[in-house]
């Protein structure tokens, strides 16, 4: 059997689940039998054609599974190992890679974004992207390491002072993961804002200290009259920037974490940034933060597991995409071990 089942995006908006040829491992690659692969906002952009992906493409960049074969340059002892995958593909020799800024690599790519990925029974992964996971770590949790590693990099970008307070716009999986990491890093109070009461209810049960619907933001003048040390946009909605800025405390930081559409513009007042000495930061993907994210998930897996609200069979890729568009659930994953 040289064939496998995979989600194939033949062109934007045109996905099928079909039999395709199994990938072969290059010298320094391994073949992973995928067990779980998560979806995120980037998958919606890849589906609709708003990303740098080539087509046809097998998407899926948040994956974990078992190594079933290895290339000639890889120790065969790896066969049978349970692993999680850092999807980042960086050339290693451009100016930015040589300066340890792999997420700015001039030929940056990612498994499932620019080359075939994890919404398939098998996928090819360079050995450099492989992380062994403990036997007791379930694959669905291991597939969460990727979004956690984006949040770990975001934390490294910020200056976090113990005892400070944070305001996060967006109660999606990234906002909630960031909330957990900030709280673990010493932020005393995290307030989450969202348009959806359903998501806010999840955020509250997940540990948000305060929740607020976006149309009642003026209430913050009572609970945080001087603003927040850290304000994060985890929505990617360009309008959030001007709404968020006035809530940054003097000498505080504003982090752009959500992915806004390319070419979108926002109006903000430079005087406030100048006068209040506000630092504006952004964080893009993963920069050698995957291994530490794995440590976090290993130690605190229970805190993250409840984010996985849906595990669907590979055949349900299109259903998962429409559920995400409707804002259903928190983290959706496709599970190759689920029959459907
Ligand atoms: Zn993702
Ligand atoms: Zn590079």
**What is the general shape?**
globular
Major sheet attributes: 7 strands, mixed
Order of helices and strands: EEEHEEEEEEHHEHEHEHEHEHEHEHE
Number of extended strands: 17
CATH architecture tag of the largest domain: Alpha-Beta Complex
Average pLDDT for all residues: 96
CATH superfamily of the largest domain: Medium-chain alcohol dehydrogenases, catalytic domain
The CATH topology of the largest domain corresponds to Quinone Oxidoreductase, Chain A, domain 1
Q: What is the CA–CA distance across the termini?
A: 20 Å
Q: How large, in whole angstroms, is the Cα Rg? A: 20 Å
Proportion of beta-strand residues: 25-35%
How many separate domains make up the residues? 2
Poorly predicted runs of 5 or more residues: none
> What is the C-level CATH assignment of the largest domain?
Alpha Beta
Helical residue percent?
A: 25-40%
Bound molecules: zinc ion
Structural class: alpha/beta
Number of helical regions = 10
């Amino acid at each position: 059997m040289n064939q496998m089942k995979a989600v194939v995006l033949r062109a934007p908006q045109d996905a099928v689940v079909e039999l395709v040829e199994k990938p072969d491992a290059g010298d320094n690659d391994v073949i992973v039998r995928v067990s779980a692969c998560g979806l995120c906002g980037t998958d919606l952009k890849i589906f609709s054609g708003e990303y740098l992906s080539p087509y046809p493409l097998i998407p899926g960049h948040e994956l974990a599974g078992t190594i079933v074969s290895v290339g000639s340059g890889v120790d065969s002892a790896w066969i049978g190992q349970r692993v999680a995958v850092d999807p980042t593909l960086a050339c290693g020799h451009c100016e930015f890679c040589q300066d340890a800024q792999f997420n700015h690599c001039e030929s940056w790519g990612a498994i499932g974004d620019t080359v075939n990925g994890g919404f398939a029974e098998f996928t090819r992964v360079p050995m450099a992207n492989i992380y062994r996971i403990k036997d007791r770590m379930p694959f669905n949790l291991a597939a969460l390491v990727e979004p956690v590693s984006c949040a770990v990099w975001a934390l490294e970008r910020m200056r976090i002072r113990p005892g400070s307070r944070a305001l996060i716009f967006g109660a999606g999986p990234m906002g909630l993961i960031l909330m957990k990491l900030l709280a673990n890093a010493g932020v005393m109070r995290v307030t989450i804002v969202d348009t959806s009461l359903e998501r806010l209810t999840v955020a509250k049960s997940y540990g948000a200290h305060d929740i607020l619907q976006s149309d009642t933001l003026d209430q913050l003048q009572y609970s945080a009259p001087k603003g927040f040390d850290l304000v994060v946009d985890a929505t990617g909605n360009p309008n959030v920037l001007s709404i968020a800025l006035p809530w940054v405390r003097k000498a505080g930081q504003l982090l752009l974490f959500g992915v806004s559409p390319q070419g979108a513009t926002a109006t903000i007042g430079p005087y406030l940034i100048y006068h209040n000495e506000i630092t504006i930061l952004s964080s893009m993907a993963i920069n050698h933060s995957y291994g530490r994210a794995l440590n976090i998930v290993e130690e605190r897996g229970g805190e993250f597991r409840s984010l996985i609200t849906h595990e669907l069979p590979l055949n349900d890729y299109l259903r998962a995409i429409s559920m995400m568009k409707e804002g259903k659930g928190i983290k959706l994953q496709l599970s190759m071990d689920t029959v459907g």
